[in-house]
């Protein structure tokens, strides 16, 4: 159902991302929302009966204005900026101030990006404590998704300088090297300023600045650095914000990639053939969820047999009530994949399985797929670096438990 003719629209709503502003008869903005498709989202308010709060909002709508955006990410940032500036009554009623999430940029030598709830911000801090405060955002999930997307363009980190070893995000390419002292505070400050411009809704200004920088670098024949800046420009102009689509209630055809909320990685440690142990490492939203890690003491075998041990671990794992994964990763090739698939078939579970094969020289990291779905293969391939990190985490966790079991026998 289209927007009723009684509601004033300056022009027809486009089928593209943006922000809509609902106004009452006095011209006051009473609600601001973001949309993957302005046309579909705004029309949804008039298609069927809603809860009382939405019905009351709809009854007060006199006109609707909108601002288009180049991506859902940009729309989410514009939405937060407008809510902060206008304070529309239905947005404020929707959530108490303590529930809103803000992004605060610290004044550290290497500034950190902190997610802080409204109540905590009001109670424990002053605005002058930070370089910038952006928001409010309606949920932590949305803000985390935005930061994850931005991190692929401008690598940032909240780790401490001069750590003993590189942090997890450095291995993924998301930390620029604060932990291992490979970036200066002034250079890192430029990255943070770029992120601040994005959250201030000044993407055109940022793009102009980056293009000027690229030209200057090229003039001085710093072609490698110029190419890196060019890549940032390209990524900014073609933001892939699939993660943010999950927050919008639209049909599947808006989603171009498979979303992996939970991935489980399994490994075996059986050095010398005694005290064999297994591990389950878990990534949620492509990041370690260490509270979800599990360890297994092998019970059924006294000899080295990785395939049989994976079978035991998976059988025991799925007899527990832990949340099911969207993807299972095993360290190995078709042998390990097939045994995992057999366990899943026995339990009537349809969970895709992928392996990482090292090859004869033990130096390869080749993905081996236990499925043929092309869309799924593309989605899994796009997170290969993350899967390698998950494999390494499972391996580290298995070895650590194996050593503790051996020490108990000494």
UniProtKB/TrEMBL annotation:
Molecular function GO labels: excinuclease ABC activity
Domain UvrC family homology region profile: 200-344
Keyword tags: Cytoplasm, DNA damage, DNA excision, DNA repair, Excision nuclease
CDD domains on file: GIY-YIG_UvrC_Cho
Record-linked Pfam families: GIY-YIG, UVR, UvrC_RNaseH_dom
GO cellular component labels: excinuclease repair complex
Ranges for domain UVR: 204-239
SUPFAM superfamilies from the UniProt entry: C-terminal UvrC-binding domain of UvrB, GIY-YIG endonuclease
Gene3D superfamilies, per the entry: GIY-YIG endonuclease, UVR domain, UvrC, RNAse H endonuclease domain
Stretches assigned to the GIY-YIG domain: 15-92
Biological processes, Gene Ontology terms: nucleotide-excision repair
SMART domains: GIYc (SM00465)
Protein name as annotated: Excinuclease ABC subunit C
Organism in which the protein naturally occurs: Candidatus Liptonbacteria bacterium RIFOXYC1_FULL_36_8
């Amino acid at each position: 159902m289209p927007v009723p003719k009684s509601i004033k629209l300056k022009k027809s709503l486009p089928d593209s991302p943006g922000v809509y502003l609902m106004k009452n008869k006095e011209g006051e903005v009473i609600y601001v929302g973001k949309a993957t498709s302005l046309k579909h989202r705004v029309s949804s308010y008039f298609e069927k009966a809603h809860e009382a709060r939405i019905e009351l909002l709809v009854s007060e709508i006199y006109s609707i204005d909108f601002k288009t955006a180049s991506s859902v990410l940009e729309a989410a940032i514009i939405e937060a900026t407008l809510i902060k500036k206008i304070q529309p009554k239905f947005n404020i009623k929707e959530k108490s101030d303590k529930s809103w999430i803000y992004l605060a940029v610290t004044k550290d030598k290497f500034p950190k990006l902190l997610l802080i709830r409204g109540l905590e911000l009001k109670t424990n801090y002053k605005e002058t404590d930070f370089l910038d405060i952006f928001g409010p955002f309606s949920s932590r999930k949305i803000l985390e998704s935005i930061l994850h997307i931005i991190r692929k363009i401008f690598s940032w980190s909240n780790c401490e300088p001069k750590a003993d070893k590189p942090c997890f995000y450095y291995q993924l390419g998301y930390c620029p090297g604060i932990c291992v002292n490979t970036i200066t505070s002034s250079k890192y400050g430029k990255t943070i300023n770029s992120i601040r411009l994005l959250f201030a809704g000044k993407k055109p200004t940022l793009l102009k600045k980056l293009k000027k920088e690229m030209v200057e670098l090229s003039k001085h024949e710093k072609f490698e650095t110029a190419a890196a800046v060019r890549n940032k420009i390209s990524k900014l102009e073609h933001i892939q914000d699939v993660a943010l689509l999950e927050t919008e209630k639209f049909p599947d055809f808006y989603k171009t990639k498979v979303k992996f909320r939970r991935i489980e990685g399994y490994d075996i440690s059986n050095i010398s053939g005694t005290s064999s142990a297994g591990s389950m490492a878990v990534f949620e939203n492509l990041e370690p969820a260490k509270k979800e890690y599990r360890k297994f003491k092998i019970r059924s075998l006294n000899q080295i047999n990785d395939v049989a041990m994976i079978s035991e671990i998976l059988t025991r794992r799925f007899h527990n009530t832990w949340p099911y994964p969207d993807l299972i990763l095993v360290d190995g090739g078709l042998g390990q994949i097939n045994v995992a698939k057999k366990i899943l078939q026995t339990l009537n579970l349809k969970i895709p399985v992928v392996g990482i094969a090292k090859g004869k020289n033990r130096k390869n990291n080749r993905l081996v797929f236990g499925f043929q779905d092309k869309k799924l293969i593309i989605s899994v391939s796009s997170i290969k670096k993350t899967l390698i990190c998950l494999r390494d985490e499972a391996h580290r966790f298995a070895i650590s438990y194996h050593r503790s079991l051996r020490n108990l026998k000494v």
